[in-house]
Amino acid sequence: MHVINSATDEQVESEIKKRTSAHAAQFTEVIPPMDCGEFRTKWVRSWHPEIVTIGELRFKSPSCYPRAVLLGLNELDIDLLRLRTELCSVADDRAFVNMTVWPEVQHFGSGCSWLSIPPSDRDFQFGSYNTGEDRPSDTSQQSTSRRITFERRYIVQPKVTVWLTAVNCGPDKNPRVRVWADDITREGFTIHVDTWGDTDLWSAGASWLAHSGVRTDVRSGTFQIQDVRLSGTPDSKTRGRVSWGAPRMEKPPRVFAALNMLEFEAGKYCRLSLYTSDVTTTGMSWNLDTWLDTVCYQAGGTFFAFDDSEEDK
After folding, report:
1. What are the angstrom distances between the C-alpha of 36 and each of 204, 223, 254?
2. Do 309 and 110 form a contact (C-beta atoms < 8 A)?
3. Going from the N-terminus, what domains does the chain have, and what CATH number goes with each?
4. Whether pTM exceeds 0.85
5. What is the pLDDT, as a whole number, of residue 247?
6. How far apart are CA 294 and CA 269, in angstroms?
């Protein structure tokens, strides 16, 4: 890892905390802490198809300050991979989201994970990207990318995670999509939205989150089915485990997890559920499950774990 002026990790982390604390001092009322959760349409309706299902997200700590809420897909039960999650509104104690499909899609169910970013912590930088910003949605393209420039330059190399918020694939071919980031510097990174094979990927959307790489109160990364099995041997239940790395976290963290890669067999329904389990101070288990006749060759996810000890004080 490259460190400016040969500063130690402790010095860099101290500087990050100092900048964050100075910004937090500007807030005179309760600052909304980092928060996360999920919504799944099966919690509010039956499996009968709907084009749009509205979900309510409840925050742990109401606040008058505006908060940023990032969304990511975590579940789908649809005949065509044409789905998006959208933030409708944010209030002091809740937010509302839409799980939306295209009119011709049979939308039996879907879900999203959500992550609320505290306005007092300026180390976090985030945003969204859609392929429609760089090409028309009536054409398919195997690779689409864009250079993202951070609003604030990082002191050290940051970590960047990305995940899916929308996918629009054509019919009759295996739906395939992957979002990822590379060329990460202190000034920015490149976000990629890819497909492969003969897939028609008309459009896709992603969210991204960056933070200083030396932070120990948060951990982030990715996982995929191929970590534990070959893509050519599909199974209805796939489970793996990730480690937070050293040092261990002070207590089991809260975890946001969303999908970043999908590949299904054409002609069958796209069914997949992502969830986490066995969260400890050293790591967590991830689960990618399908059901009925769905064939899922590949899937992957992004995780962001954080210590919410501040809420317990």
Report:
1. 23, 19, 7
2. no
3. 27-119 (2.60.40.2080)
4. yes
5. 95
6. 6
